[in-house]
Amino acid sequence: MRRYLLGRLLQTLVVVFLVTTASFVLVHLAPGDPFALEDPRASAEVRARWRAEFGLDRPLPEQYVRYLGNVARGNLGWSISHQRPVAHAIADALPRTLLLVGVGGALALLGGIALGVYQSLRRGSPVERVVSGATLVAYSLPDFWVAIVLLLVFANWIPVFPAGGVVDPVMHDYLSFGGRIADRLHHLVLPAATLALIAAAGIARYQRTALLEVLGADFLRTARAKGLPERRVVLRHALRNALLPVITLAGLMIPALFGGAVFVEKVFSWNGMGLLAVNAIAARDYPLVTASVAMGGIVVAVGSLVADLLYAVADPRLREGSA
Amino acid sequence: MTDPLLEVEDLHTYFYSENGVARSVDGVSFTVGRGETVGLVGESGSGKSVTALSLLRLIRAPGRIEPGSRVRFEGKDLLALSEEEMRRMRGNRVAMIFQEPMTALNPVFTVGEQIAEVSRIHEGTSRRDAWKRAIEMLELVGIPAPEQRAKEYPHQLSGGMRQRVVIAMALVMNPALVIADEPTTALDVTIQAQILELLAELQQRTGMSILLITHDLGVVAETCSRVLVMYGGEIVEEAPVGVTFASAHHPYSEGLLGAMPRVGGEQERLATIPGTVPAPTNWPTGCRFHDRCPYAWERCAQEHPPLYQIGVGHVSRCHLADEPGRRDRRHPPLVEAVAGPGGVAQGSPPGERDNVKDRKALS
Amino acid sequence: MSAPSDALPAAGLWHRLWRQRRARIALMVLATLALLALLAPVIAPYEPTAQRDIIGMKSQPPSLAHPFGTDQFSRDVLSRMLHGARISLSVAVLAVLLSATVGTAYGAIAGYRGGRLDAVMMRLLDGLLAIPRVLLLLGILGVWPMVSLPVLILLLGGTGWFGVSRLVRAEVMAVARRDHVTAARALGAPDHRLLLRHILPNAITPVLVAAALGVGGVVVLEAGLSYLGVGVRPPHASWGNIIQDGSTDLYLRWWMSLFPGLAIVITVLACNVVADALRDAADPRHLPRAND
């Protein structure tokens, strides 16, 4: 187990390193000057600072080393469109994305597992068939479209939820503590539901297959022969085994969730990393674009590492070696 | 004689599918007495495992124990019990040991937990007490350092140890009957012997009865007092073990004995029974063994033989009991005549068939 | 999931696929879409870029003359969707072809060679798989806004092969151990022949499943990227950028979000159904059983 942990940690570090390097490469490959020396939005003192920090007139390898050093120190450059350090913009946006993905992912996992279990247990019943069909359709929906439809329906035609934003732009600061929490939750519902809907459908399908497979296993026959009640056989013996592949899937879904978050943030004007990146692209703010994309990649890598660790804890076969 | 522990009467278990009805168990009756070890012998496809599962009512759709079957255990008809009452019998008064210990154990729970579970479910014992009992059971089945072992997972144990765990699980509640379905087939020969010894010892100690299901006559010789031979979903011979090995009556039993490898003694080749086991969806008419039998005659193809009494506690489902003279007239069985020696019926490509004809014409 | 080498070879695959009713329906839906896309220039009621009445026809909701309405540039949405179908579908198919080819090659080499080479290739793959495809594409397209369609296809295809290669590697490793391969090798067949003629044809099924899923996936991905403004650029129409055009006034021009979205959903649904059916067709457990 320890070896496995170290291996995964190493792998994550390598990914982080690759992503950082890739963003450096991208910035310098971009057409036009990456640090936009001609860009009127960058004042003279900003350019001077850049030249000093990033060594823009030095040879490329040296720039690279400086870049790495800067990144390690948390200096990711200056955002032209926001007129402040990139690192600050990211630091503001990242928690909001984490909140969205965290809540959406948790909902997806719970809902998806429950749905998957239901589908495999009630297999063949007319209700299950409908549910399975609906799950298939849900799984096929593009996230940004679901977001748009939900927005249209629940924020416009039946105005139940706000049309976007993380908090109410006007009222939020005047609300009580409880009111502010409620306001945040109110704004969180639609975006999180969008993410959760599609992810849950995917998880449900996978869980259904996994559970169906386990249901045919020999050790369940043993459990029944021991005189265990059917409910215990399924919920404790079967499910415990069927959950394992789903945890792996959940881990694998983390990249997909973050990918989907980009679109959801755009539709709901949720000021997270995704929206930051998208706006930065439109504004041709290259340092911000590459930094936010790179940061997204790093977050995903770390998330996957955590998921893998959780799986290793859950599956006893991975914990110690086999006899 | 005291009441038998288990009385199976006319058990029929059928499986329904689009390919037809598979009559896997087609009228099986036998008894198991208290403290007895009875062997149920047959090849795969004979219906022996299905019989075992039927006794515990572990047959699921599309299989079904047909009405008219009766399984009386400790005086109660198991087939008439409610599902809940039956559940309380399983693992408690009747227990089962399966063939493949690796797949029989749940890989995500420790062996201790899996054993403890039995007493917690049936007796409601506390966690701690159940765990203690589990350790006792592990000791009983001869696993060294049971306190440590109990905390281990199935994949950490060897095959023989896993099977001991399975036996421990079965014996927690001191059942009166243990059904062992090929308990040693998946194990090495040396471990096999150990497991059989263990079972015998445990039987001495607890007085439980064992229904041992196997295809291996060697195992039967070691452990059983009475032997039931199954073929084609039916019992074709029943006899005390000594009689079975010394003077088996049914041609199929003969065939099985002839096919047994024996250490020492001269033997040129292992005799095989030509042909293959028929499919339960399509049992042959008359005697189900007739097309593979070296003694069969017309009656055998038409008339389904009943169980004839041969001696004390010895019955055989064979018309030879009625016409013993026929035993002198051995001949190649029907399957060989149709398909050639080796007996496996196959369609041969046209070219080959011509060769055979030519050869015959030449000879 | 069943072990890789359990899958039946591609031999009777089409047959078993066609036998499933849902597969027939899905394939016909896809064929219809493809046909519509192909015939777009002929059947579209208007030119996709035609602005026949710039003032009067602006942002009209669906009507008889314009079944899917018009956009803010007075262009007929239905015609744009038909032409958009050409782009969206062909981009998806070509990108998937690319991913499938690259992925199969990568996986086959890794799986066949094994050893150190395999370990290195897989490590690299793990690293690549960790990066969300959307972010990767955003990163690249973000600094290169003006990509042409062929480059877009290259990028989409070039980011979609990671999963396929893993699958192929597993299959190749399983098939390579089979007897018929050893026999061929004993007869002196060179590596590449073994791979191409003996191993790959048996390993092809998961690639087909992944391809079916992939087409749906790329359609969504391209639409999403176009929606964000970095995919297919105007004046080309794609389902995604029609939605993008509509997004500037979402509530007013709802038809511009609804109809292209439905088209995407139908396409992806059909692809997923085909993929499911393919998976079932390849699963030996679904064969009629001999007596157990």
Describe this structure in words.
The complex is a heterotrimer of chains A (323), B (363) and C (292). Chain A has 323 residues and is mainly alpha-helical. Chain A has 12 helices and 2 strands. Chain A has helices at 2-29, 44-54, 60-73, 86-121, 126-139, 143-157, 177-215, 218-225, 230-267, 273-282, 286-314, 316-319, and strands spanning 78-79, 84-85. In chain A, strand 1 and strand 2 (84-85) form a beta hairpin. In chain A, 43% of the residues are buried. Helix content of chain B is 35%, strand content 20%. Chain B has 14 helices and 13 strands. Chain B has helices at residues 48-55, 83-89, 101-104, 111-123, 127-140, 146-149, 159-171, 189-206, 217-223, 241-247, 251-258, 298-302, 334-339, 350-362; strands at residues 6-17, 20-32, 37-41, 63-65, 70-73, 76-77, 94-97, 177-181, 209-214, 226-231, 234-240, 308-311, 314-316. In chain B, the strands form 2 sheets. An 8-stranded mixed beta sheet of chain B has the order 7-8-9-3-10-11-13-12, with helices on both faces. In chain B, helix 4 packs parallel to helix 7 and helix 5 (127-140) packs across helix 7 (159-171). The longest helix of chain B is centred in the middle third of the chain and has 18 residues, at 189-206. The relative contact order of chain B is 0.12. Chain C is an all-alpha fold and 292 residues long. Chain C is built from 12 helices and no strands.
**Count of helix runs of chain B:** 14
Structural classification of chain C: mainly alpha
Question: Quaternary status of these chains?
Answer: heterotrimer
What's the β-strand tally of chain B? 13
What is the succession of H and E elements of chain B?
A: EEEHEEEHEHHHHHEHEHEEHHHEEHH
The count of DSSP E runs of length 2 or more, i.e. the number of strands of chain C, is 0
> What does the largest sheet of chain B look like?
8 strands, mixed
Which residues of chain B sit in consecutive blocks of at least 5 with pLDDT less than 50?
Answer: 343-363
Helix content of chain C: 55-70%
Distance between the termini of chain C: 21 Å
Query: Strand percentage of chain C, roughly?
Result: under 5%
Mean pLDDT of chain B: 84
Per DSSP, what share of the residues of chain B sits in E-state strands of 2 or more residues? 15-25%
Give the overall average pLDDT of chain C.
80
| Structural class computed from helices and strand pairing of chain B | alpha/beta
Q: Give me the side-by-side strand order of the main sheet of chain B.
A: 7-8-9-3-10-11-13-12
What general outline of chain B do the C-alpha atoms trace?
A: globular
> What is the 3D shape of chain C?
elongated
Most residues in contact: chain pair: A-C, 56 and 44 residues
Q: What is the H/E order of chain C?
A: HHHHHHHHHHHH
